[in-house]
Design brief:
The complex is a heterodimer.
Chain A: H1 7-21, H2 25-56, H3 62-110, H4 114-119, H5 122-164, H6 166-213, H7 215-220, H8 224-276, H9 282-294, H10 297-304, H11 306-323, E1 344-352, E2 358-367, E3 372-376, H12 383-390, E4 398-403, E5 406-407, H13 413-419, E6 420-423, E7 432-433, H14 434-439, E8 458-459, H15 468-481, E9 486-490, H16 498-511, E10 516-520, E11 532-537, E12 540-545, H17 547-553, H18 556-572
Parallel strand pairs in A: 3-10, 3-11, 6-9, 9-10
Antiparallel strand pairs in A: 1-2, 1-4, 4-5, 7-8, 11-12
Chain B: H1 2-17, H2 20-52, H3 58-107, H4 118-133, H5 135-160, H6 165-169, H7 174-209, H8 211-216, H9 220-272, H10 278-319, H11 345-348, E1 351-360, E2 370-378, E3 382-386, H12 393-399, E4 408-413, E5 416-417, H13 423-429, E6 430-433, H14 444-449, H15 459-468, H16 495-507, E7 513-517, H17 525-538, E8 541-545, H18 549-553, E9 557-562, E10 565-570, H19 572-577, H20 582-601
Parallel strand pairs in B: 3-8, 3-9, 6-7, 7-8
Antiparallel strand pairs in B: 1-2, 1-4, 4-5, 9-10
Helix pairs in contact in B: 1-10, 2-3, 2-5, 2-10, 3-4, 3-5, 4-10, 5-10, 7-9, 7-10, 9-10, 15-16
Classes of the chains: A alpha/beta, B alpha/beta.
């Protein structure tokens, strides 16, 4: 947001956009060629009219007239064809370029490291993918197209004026150029006030939506009147700002009317006397008048599209900023194992999400291939972080994490994650069928979920039409679909009915036979049979062993166990 | 249906009537412009005829040229006038619509808008306000152009060349029909393009929200493939739309060209037979060119008006929502309200607040949230209201400052019915501290002043309120002191800091009753104790809920709510003795939790 007043950077982003246009050269060049052709045809039309006017001064044979009419008809038909083709080519170009930018942006976002995603608002990323892309699309489909189109017409018109009559045309051109320079000045003012309007509109919207989200507090503080005064002041200020472009366009229109009038008056007086003395024909004069009535229009219309440019460039800047963020390292490169036996070692691992707040301190643990392990501890003790590190979602600040004896920093994260199955606490639901939600649009064969959930069933966004048990069954089936070789289970806190729970546990035991299973356990009842239990507190492993051994220690584990038993007794009542 | 349409139409008319002087000025200026535009080709005609007639009359030519310039100068002035006055009308109309909407929204009951996302709401009224206020500018311009040009110019053409013009004008009559034709085709293709865009956007938004899942399941490739497929769909539909879009311009122009061809053939023939002059021929050509746009404007005006009507319906729907004050069962007459602050009763009445058989359910559901709640809070008392998540505690709290209205039963404030008290005066007496305080993205001072009845300029009182809330103005936390920006554009406060800021706000008010809805959950036990002590000194009575045993046990009385009903009510130590009761279980569980906490913090 702070970079809003850096024209140099804006130009660089503009160049990147233009570069994008060049990715579909065929459409671009065809479109430009057609634009040039239609501009030339636009300039030729008035000349035929002029020729006709000249011919009409003398009695005209019907055949001659018919020929001219046919010529004009052919030319105009060709022009319409060019215009149509040009517009279609530009739209095709815009759509393909947009699709490319969209895919680049989307895949880039999916490749950002988790540490970066933590600091980005998902709403912000969402804006990049929706309204920012739309603003850039408008830039492609309207903004750039019109600039190319209008520029071609202006150039062709300038040539035609001078070619038709060096002196008269030249004089008109000079007058028009004055107007052109006025346009440049006005354009600067316009873009400045559009930019200000953008800022003030978003300030006003933020003001209102913030108060709407805190409406009850607003009422409790009796603040309606006070806040309304502020809102009205903001709205009035915005109205004043919005009035600026109207004023600028008013003067622009007045100026263009006057410039045209100057040109026409000049042509009538000087051109008229030159026709009278026979140095030019009346047809030339009529053609010149047609040209000068036309020539300013492309300039004013470019300014009319200013808003598309301002918001398009601002959005492009935000999109490119995101595209310039570094991707997650080692996502694709590194060793790519296709089989894991499942032995895991943490060697003196230290980790923190933000500086100064250690989450894991000097954690060392060793898990044998094929064993069932539980991580327990109070909320925030670091047990879930172990899962995130094992998946390579974050890198340890120091220490080593080894899977099958290989440091995972040398392994491709993508291929590692393909072999590890994470069963998460909350199931993220895409709106779509159960089938799509299990395979996530891959070609995998979906693992049939428990509870007879049909694969064709349509799910709402957020899965609001699912029961707790169904969610759990889908979470599990989604992971099972991927045929993982190591299981990470971030155990659900939501209570399942005992039947579903035991069915799920049975299925897990069946599918994970011989494989390593690491559960982050919130309910200690489920860890009694674990081969090994690691008890976490404040980022350290404070106790380790089997259930009975830990109970005998009468430390943190014993207390947590006692607490949970009490809670469960309460629940049963 | 038709009555509501006329209601929306009336709304549009009243919105525009507010800026009628500016609109009238604009319309007059627009008429001047179109009359001038109709006159200018006549001067061209005169000039051409003068030039081609020998001997050339230079004085006539000069006269024509200068008149041309004069009329154009008048036209230029008129353009400046209509642009500015209509522009002003548009911005004024927009700003007054925005103001009345904000006013309405600020007065709505807070739960009315729960179903709409606030961002959506704001964007919607942004674009709706725009499409109404644009009637002042583009709407007026296209309307006046359409009417003035299409009546003036054909009349002049017929007067100039009665035998030629009817045939020349004939093709142009097709333009309004063409507009309707394309509008319908564009609409259906546009809406399917919009649908494909929505699918694309909602899938990408979902993927962004589920980004961690996508990453940890390593399914980026298949997700991107699906996104690409949706994008390809959108490209295909977009190009279908583009094909119609690209045809519109040429289709209109072809009618203009047809008119020009008729002019060339028939008019050319008439010129050579001497039926019309060469100047008339040139003028007719200019008129054809000038008429193309106004003929299209007829269609544009219609669609602008349709869009404005749709927007009006959405705004009227918001503006017709009942406001907070009108919601109570007994209508309030604001003038005759009994004021509690200075009446003689308060000091003598020991009972500050009483719930009498209060029940509550949301209008949309029959399920009762609260059933027959009765309890009271006396002056000088601290009452702890306890219960599980979803038991109805927060609903009880919301009923007191009348954020919600009971379905049945009565709530009494100093022996007066709550429904008869003036809302703003009641709310001055009650302060509610939520668990998740509402923080503005503004300066610290603004955030404090948000709660005060008047802007407090004395820094001392702001600073002392922060001190009492255990949030001292340390430069390490607030580098710019009271002017430090917090929220989205400033520093991010921790949960505990947010709660303390909300407590500081309470010290800037002088409430009789202070309600703390788990408002200390992010504070450590020492801070909680010290803040509680300050709050007790500040308010006449305290109604709170908390997990911490020290706080709960220090209350004078405990009220336990289970599933919307009162399960226990009494002094803490009496309730503890009821073994197996909710409170006894709560006590036992919380004791263990605090024991683990203590163990952990060692």
């Amino acid at each position: 947001m702070s970079a809003s007043k850096k024209p140099a950077a804006t130009n660089a982003f503009g160049l990147r956009l233009v570069h994008l246009l060049f990715t579909n050269r065929r459409s671009l060049f065809t479109a430009i060629a057609l634009t040039i052709l239609s501009s030339i045809a636009t300039a030729v039309g008035p000349r035929i009219m002029g020729y006709l006017v000249d011919s009409l001064q003398h009695p005209l044979a019907e055949v001659e007239l018919a020929k001219l009419v046919a010529l004009y008809a052919t030319l105009e038909a060709a022009r319409l064809l060019f215009t149509w083709g040009q517009s279609l080519c530009f739209q095709t170009l815009g759509q393909t370029v947009l699709q490319r930018l969209r895919l680049d942006l989307f895949s880039h976002i999916l490749a950002l490291p988790c540490s970066r995603l933590d600091t980005l608002h998902s709403a912000d990323i969402g804006t990049r993918l929706s309204s920012d892309l739309a603003a850039v699309a408008a830039l492609f489909s309207a903004g750039f197209v019109r600039v190319i189109e209008r520029t071609c017409i202006i150039i062709v018109m300038m040539f035609s004026l001078v070619l038709l009559d060096m002196r008269l045309g030249g004089a008109c051109l000079v007058l028009s150029l004055f107007f052109g320079s006025a346009c440049v000045v006005l354009g600067r003012h316009l873009s400045k006030s559009y930019r200000e309007i953008r800022e003030k509109v978003s300030a006003f919207n933020t003001f209102i939506s913030e108060r709407v989200s805190g409406l009850s507090t607003l009422h409790l503080f009796n603040a309606e009147e006070r806040e309304l005064e502020k809102a009205q002041a903001l709205a009035a200020n915005l109205a004043d700002l919005r009035y600026q472009p109207a004023k600028l366009f008013g003067s622009l229109h007045a100026l263009s009317t006057i410039t045209i009038a100057f040109n026409v008056t000049l042509l009538l007086i000087v051109g008229g006397s030159r026709v009278a003395d026979g140095s030019i024909s009346i047809g030339v004069l009529v053609t010149l008048i047609s040209y000068v009535l036309w020539i300013l229009w492309p300039l004013t219309s470019i300014l009319n599209d200013g808003q598309i440019f301002i918001s398009g460039m601002a959005s492009a800047r935000r999109i490119f900023h995101l595209l310039d963020e570094p991707k997650e390292q080692g996502l694709l490169n590194g060793a790519a194992p296709d089989k894991l036996s499942g032995s895991i070692r943490f060697e003196a691992v230290n980790f923190q999400y933000s500086p100064g707040v250690p989450v894991l301190q000097d954690v060392s643990l060793s898990i044998q291939a094929g064993s069932k392990v539980a991580l327990v501890g109070p909320t925030g003790s670091g047990k879930s972080t172990i899962v995130a590190l094992l998946l390579g979602l974050y890198q340890p600040n120091s220490g080593k994490i080894m899977i099958d004896g290989h440091d995972i920093s040398g392994t491709s994260k993508r291929s590692l994650r393909k072999l590890i199955g994470l069963v998460q606490q909350d199931l993220f639901i895409f709106s779509g069928t159960v089938h799509e939600n299990l395979t996530l649009w891959s070609d995998a064969h979906p693992h049939p979920p428990l509870l007879n959930i049909s694969l064709d069933r349509e799910l709402n966004e957020h899965g609001s039409n699912l029961s707790v048990g169904e969610r759990q069954a889908l979470t599990f089936a989604r992971t099972a679909t991927r045929l993982p070789q190591i299981w990470l289970i971030d155990e659900a806190t939501a209570s399942l009915d005992p039947q579903t729970e035991s069915a799920l546990l049975q299925e897990l035991a069946l599918l994970s036979a011989g494989q390593t299973v690491i559960s982050v356990a919130h309910r200690l009842r489920s860890v009694i049979d674990a081969d090994q239990i690691f008890v976490f507190n404040a980022g350290r492993i404070v106790e380790r062993g089997r259930h009975a051994e830990l109970l005998a220690k009468n430390g943190l584990y014993a207390r947590l166990y006692e607490l949970q038993s009490a809670v469960e007794v309460n629940h049963c009542q | 249906m038709s009555t509501s349409t006329s209601r929306y139409r009336r709304f549009l008319i009243t919105s525009l009537a507010a800026v009628r002087t500016k609109l009238a000025l604009g319309v007059v200026a627009l008429l001047v412009v179109s009359v001038a535009d109709a006159a200018l080709p006549l001067l061209l005609k005169e000039s051409v005829d003068t030039i081609t007639k020998l001997p050339t009359s230079y004085s006539t030519l000069l006269f024509c040229a200068l008149t041309y310039f004069l009329i154009a100068a008048i036209q230029a002035t008129a353009r400046l006038v209509y642009r500015t006055s209509l522009g002003r009308a548009q911005t004024q109309c927009g700003s007054s619509l925005r103001a009345s909407l904000s006013k309405k929204i600020f007065q709505l009951p807070h739960f009315t808008l729960h179903s709409t996302k606030s961002g959506d709401l704001v964007n919607r009224f942004e674009s709706d306000v725009e499409s109404i206020s644009i009637l002042c500018d583009s709407g007026t311009i296209t309307l006046v152009d359409a009417i003035a040009y299409t009546t003036l110019m054909p009349l002049i053409m017929l007067w100039l060349a009665p035998s030629t013009s009817p045939f020349v004008l004939l093709p142009l009559l097709g333009i309004p029909f063409l507009t309707r034709f394309f509008e319908r085709r564009i609409q259906s293709r546009y809406s399917s393009y919009q649908k494909s865009q929505d699918a694309l956007i909602s899938f990408s938004q979902e993927s962004v929200r589920g980004l961690r899942l996508v990453k940890s399941a390593a399914c980026e490739d298949s997700i991107i493939r699906h996104y690409r497929n949706l994008g390809d769909d959108s490209v295909r539909v977009g190009l279908r739309l583009a094909r119609v879009d690209a045809t519109i311009g040429p289709a209109f122009e072809s009618l203009g060209i047809l008119a020009a061809l008729v002019l060339f053939a028939l008019g050319g023939w008439h010129v050579s037979t001497g039926l019309i002059s060469l100047g008339t021929f040139v003028a007719l050509h200019k008129y054809i060119q000038r008429l193309l746009w106004p003929m299209q404007a007829i269609g544009v005006t219609l669609s602008l008006y349709q869009r404005a009507l749709t927007s009006a319906s959405r705004l009227v729907d918001i503006l017709d929502l009942p406001t907070e004050g009108t919601l109570s069962s007994a209508p309030i007459n604001r003038s005759q309200v009994v004021i509690g602050t200075e009446s003689a009763t308060p000091k003598s009445a020991p009972i500050l607040l009483r719930f009498d058989n209060v029940s509550f359910s949301y209008p949309s559901t029959a399920r009762p949230i609260l059933s027959n709640i009765s309890f009271q809070v006396e002056r000088g008392e601290t009452v702890a209201l306890l219960g599980d998540v979803g038991s109805g505690k927060s609903t009880i709290f919301s009923l007191i400052p009348r954020l919600l209205i009971p379905t049945s039963g009565e709530i009494l404030w100093e022996n007066q019915r709550l429904s008869q008290l003036q809302l703003s005066l009641l709310r001055e007496q009650v302060s509610l501290l939520p668990q998740e305080p509402f923080i503005l993205s503004a300066s610290l001072a603004d955030n404090l002043n948000f709660a005060a009845n008047q802007v407090v300029n004395e820094h001392d009182s702001l600073i002392s309120s922060l001190d009492r809330a255990a949030l001292p103005l340390l430069p390490s936390i607030f580098p710019a002191g009271l002017e430090t920006q917090i929220g989205e554009r400033g520093i991010t406060l921790s949960g505990g800091q947010r709660q303390r800021l909300s407590i500081a706000r309470a010290f800037l008010r002088s409430p009789a009753l202070l309600i703390a809805d788990d408002a200390f959950s992010a504070l450590d036990s020492q801070t909680e104790a010290s803040v509680l002590k300050e709050l007790r000194a500040h308010a006449k009575a305290l109604l709170l809920t908390s997990q911490r045993l020290a706080t709960v046990l220090s209350a004078d009385r405990i009220v336990v709510v289970v599933a919307g009903r009162i399960a226990q009510n009494g002094r803490p130590h009496d309730l503890l003795k009821e073994s197996g009761s909710w409170f006894a279980n709560f006590y036992e569980r919380q004791r263990l939790v605090e024991e683990v906490e203590n163990y952990v913090s060692l």
